[in-house]
Amino acid sequence: MRTILIVLITAGALLTGASNAHTQQNWAGQYRVSGVNPDGTTYEGTATITSLGRNMYGMAWQTGDSYTGFGFVDAKGYLVVGGLQGPLVVSYAPDGSGTWLAPGAPAVATEKLTKQ
Fold this sequence. Notes:
Layout: H1 2-16, E1 29-36, E2 42-53, E3 56-62, E4 66-73, E5 79-83, E6 89-92, E7 97-101, E8 109-115
Antiparallel strand pairs: 1-2, 1-8, 2-3, 3-4, 4-5, 5-6, 6-7, 7-8
């Protein structure tokens, strides 16, 4: 399953094309993270986003547990990240508001990134 997710993310990044890069924000940097889990509990922490080139980014979260992932920026400027510890997908709007989903979760969760 993780291999399929990685292939889909990589394919999506290639399909967005470098031609959209000039219209998109640079997501690289340090962020404060706050969110609401699918069960309604809240969490806070930090995240680091690193540019990997060609609209690709690596991401590391510290929210009590540590998570890593990588993804791409789509044509609308949304950062889409897949987690490497399991099949998790997060989509962040250009304002840093995001939603995430994990298999078996009772609902979609929300998360907010605030650049430091």
